Amino acid sequence: MDYMYRFRSITRLLENKELENQGIYFAKCEELNDPVERVMEQERKELKRKQRIETAQKTFWGVVAGVIIGTVVSR
Question: CB under 8 Å to 13, separation ≥6 — which residues?
Answer without folding.
Answer: 19
